[in-house]
Amino acid sequence: MSTAATRVRTQPGSRLRIRGSAGLGLAAWLAGILFFLPIAWMTLTSFHSEEDAATNPPSLAASLTLDGYREFFGSGGGASPWPSLINSTVASVASTLLVLLLALPAAYALSIRPVKKWTDVLFFFLSTKMLPVVAGLLPIYLFAKNTDMLDNIWLLVILYTSMNLPIAVWMMQSFLAEVPVAIIEAAQIDGARLPTILGRVVAPIALPGIAATSLICFIFSWNELLFARVLTGVVAQTAPVFLTGFITSQGLFLAKVCAASLVISLPVLAAGFAAQDKLVQGLSLGAVK
Amino acid sequence: MTVTASTTTVAPATARTPAPRAPGKLRAWATRAPLLPALIFMVVVTQLPFVATLVISFFDWNALYPDARSFAGLDNYSEVLTDPDLRKSVLTTIVLTATVVIASLVIGLGLALLLDRRFRGRGMVRTLLIAPFLLVPVAAALLWKHVLYNPEYGLFNGLLHWFGGDGAAQPDWVSNTPLLAIEASLIWQWTPFMMLILLAGLQSRDSELIEAARMDGAGNWQIFRHLTLPHLRRYLELGALLGSIYIVQNFDAVFTITSGGLGTANLPYTVYQSFYQAHENGLASAAGVLVVIGSIIIATFALRVVSSLFREEAARS
After folding, report:
1. In this structure, are A211 and A120 located in the same domain?
2. DSSP collapsed to 3 states, A152-169
3. How many distinct structural domains can be found in chain A?
4. Residue A21's domain spans which residues?
5. What mean pLDDT, rounded, does chain A reach?
6. B residues 170-229 lying closer than 8 A (beta carbon) to A
7. Residue B149's closest CA among B190, B187, B180, B124?
8. Of the candidates A40, A72, A104, which is a domain's last residue?
9. Domain range for residue B84?
C-alpha cells in the first residue's frame, strides 16, 4: 500500500494505471484460486467420510474425519504404504546423493577450472536429457532380468541418477560460475590449498544453489513412474506405483484416494516450495536465471 | 572467448603446484579428472541402452518365443510405420503434445503478465499457482480422473448439478472426450511451469526502455506488441521446447486416466505396452528408435535455443 502511495506521489500521471492494476490484481487472485481449487477440494474430500465424499451435488459442510488417512495407512486391511514410501525415500535420497557426488566435481571442471571445449561437454549432458526414456527401457529391462536386478531398489537409484545428473551438472555449473574468479585467485595467492578454497570460498557462495539442485533432483526421482512400474514388483515398489495400484475395490474410495495422493505428494510440495526461487533455473536447465 | 580468458588466468596459478614442470598433458588430465566419473556414468547408463535398442530393433524377437529370434532387417520398421495403431499413436502424441504446450503457454503468458505487477498478496497467488505443478503426476492424474471427472460424484458434474439444478447435464467426461480429458489435466499441471519461465522473462526486461517508450506515448498494447513480445520470444521458445520434451514422454497421465484406451495411447504408452504386455521386443525397439529420431529433431531446436540463451547470459556477465 505504502509503495503504491509513494509511486502516486512521484508519478502523478500514473494514477489511472494503479487503479487499473487493482482490477488486475483481483484477476490474478481469481486465477490463483481457480488453479488451486482442485487441490483444495481434494484436501477437503480427504477429510470426509467415503459416503460424504461421493455425493452429488457435493457436500461442502459434511463432518470431518481422519478415516481416509487411517484407511490409507492400512487400518482397513489393505496393503501398508510404508514399504513403498520407504523405497521411494531410499531411491530419491540415495540417487540425489550420488548425483551430488558426480555432479559437483564435474561442474567444477566445467566452471571454475574449465576443461577445453567445456561448452561441448555441457551440451553433451543436456542432449542425454532429451532422449526419451522409453527408448532405453527395453534393454535396461532385459539387462535387469538377466542379472537378477529386477525388483531391486538400487537399480532405480542408478537410473534416477542418470535421469537427474544432466540437470544437476547444468544447474551446478551455473551456480559455480557465479563464484568470482578474482576471489579464488586471491585465495590462491594467499597460499590457500584446493580443499580450503572449496570449503571456505566456493561452498558459501554455491551452497544455496546446491541445496536447490538437490531438492529438484529429489522431486524428479520421487515422481518417476515408468521405470518404477516396469522394473519393480513387490519388494522395491515405489510410492507412485503403490498409488496406481491403490484403486482396486469397486466400492467407495474417493476419500482414501485423496488422502493417499496428498500424503504421497507432501514431500514434493515441501521440497518444491523450499526450492521455489531456484525452481525455474533448475527446470530450464540453468538457461533462465 | 570466455574459455580462453579463464584458462589463461588460471594457468599461472597452476604453475604454483608442487610439480611446476609437470608436462602439459598431465595437467590437462588433472583438469579433466573431476569430469570423468560423471561422463563415464552417463555414457554407460544412457548411451549403451540406446545402442542396444538400435540393435534389437533389427531383430524379429518376441520374448515369449526366445528361440525364434532372427535377424529381420528393416521389417520391424516397415511394420511399425504401416501399423495403423502405431501410426495413430504417433498422431496422438503430436496432438497431445501440441495442444498441451500451446494451451499452457498461452494461459501461462496471461498469468505471468498478471503476476508481473505489484498487488496485495502476490507471493501468495504465486504459491497457489505453482501448487498444481508440485503434485506427484500420478496423484494429479488420479485427482482429475476420480475426483473431478467421475460422472456420478465428480466435482465437475457436482458443480453442474449445483448450478443447473436436477435437470443439468451429467456428462461422462473421460468416455466422451478422452484425449481432451488427459490434455486438460496436463495443461493444469504445466501452465505453472510456463508461467514461471515467462515471468522470469518478463522480469528480465529493461524497465528503462519501457518507461522511455511510455514517455514517448506508447500505449500498453503497443509496448506489449513491440517490446515485451519480442523480448519474450526466446522464453516462449524455451518453454515450448522444454514442455515438448517432457510432454512427448508423458506416460503417467495416459496410463492413469485412460490406460491408453479410447484412442489415447501415445508413443511412450505404446512402446511400454508392446514389450511389457505383448512382449514384442523387436517392434518395441523399432518404435523406440522412431521416438528417438522424433526427439532428436525437437532436441536440435531446443539445444539451439538453450545455447543462444546461454551465450547471451555469458555475454552479460
Report:
1. yes
2. CHHHHHHHHHHHHHHHHH
3. 2
4. 2-72
5. 83
6. 170, 188, 191-193, 196-197, 199-201
7. B180
8. A72
9. 75-316
**B8, B26, B35, best to mutate vs chain A, most A CBs in 10 Å:** B35
In angstroms, the separation between the Cα of residue B81 and the nearest Cα of chain A is: 16
* Residue keyed to cell 484416494: A257
For residue B217, list chain A residues with Cβ-Cβ distance below 8 A: none
Q: Please list, in sequence order, all residues whose beta carbon lies within 8 angstroms of the beta carbon of residue A44, skipping any fewer than 6 positions away.
A: A60
Which element (helix H / strand E) includes B227?
A: none
Write out pLDDT tens, residues B214-230.
Answer: 888 888 888 888 888 88
Residue of chain A with shortest Cα separation from B280 = A138
A13 has pLDDT over 80: no
Q: Is the pLDDT of residue B9 over 60?
A: no
Q: Are residues A55 and A124 in the same domain?
A: no
CA angle A9, A14, A20 (to 5 degrees): 120
The whole-number pLDDT of residue B5 equals: 36
Q: Does B45 touch chain A if contact means CB atoms closer than 8 Å?
A: yes
To the nearest whole Å, the CA of B45 is away from the closest chain A CA by: 7
The reported pTM is 0.84
Q: Domain containing A164 — which CATH number?
A: 1.10.3720.10
- Do A38 and A225 contact (CB within 8 A), yes or no? no
Which of A42, A72, A102 is the C-terminal boundary of a domain?
A72
Within 13 Å of residue B154, how many CA atoms lie on the same side as its CB?
18
CB contact (8 A) between residue A219 and residue B191: no
A22 pLDDT exceeds 60? yes
Q: Clarify whether residues A9 and A130 are in a common domain.
A: no
Cell of B2: 570466455
Decide: B306 and B239 in contact? Cβ < 8 Å: no
Does residue A2 surpass a pLDDT of 60? no
Q: What's the confidence (pLDDT) of residue A196? A: 85
pLDDT in tens, A242-266: 988 877 655 678 888 899 999 999 9
Q: Is residue B164 a part of any domain in this protein?
A: yes
ipTM entry = 0.84
d(CA A74, CA A249): 14
pLDDT of the residue at A12:
44
**How does residue A16 score in pLDDT terms, banded at 50, 70 and 90?**
low
CB burial class (10 A; 0-12, 13-18, 19+) of residue B64? exposed
pLDDT at A203: 83
Whether chain A has a CB inside 8 Å of the CB on B308: the answer is no
| Residue B254 and residue A226 in contact, taking contact as beta carbons nearer than 8 Å | no
* pLDDT for residue B313: 66
Of the ranges A53-62, A210-219, B47-56, which one carries the lowest mean pLDDT score?
Answer: A53-62
Output the DSSP codes for A101-169: HHHHHHHHHHHTSPPTTHHHHHHHHHHHHTS-THHHHHHHHHHHHHTT-TT-HHHHHHHHHHHHHHHHH
Report whether B58 contacts B71 (CB < 8 A): yes
Task: Decide if B35 and A226 are in contact by the 8 Å CB cutoff.
Answer: no
The cell for A282 is 533448475
Residue B258 lies in a domain: yes
All three cell numbers of B89: 499413436
Chain B (61-80) residues lying within 8 Å, Cβ to Cβ, of chain A: none
Q: How far is B240 from chain A (nearest CA, A)?
A: 11
Q: Report the pLDDT averaged over residues B98-123.
A: 92
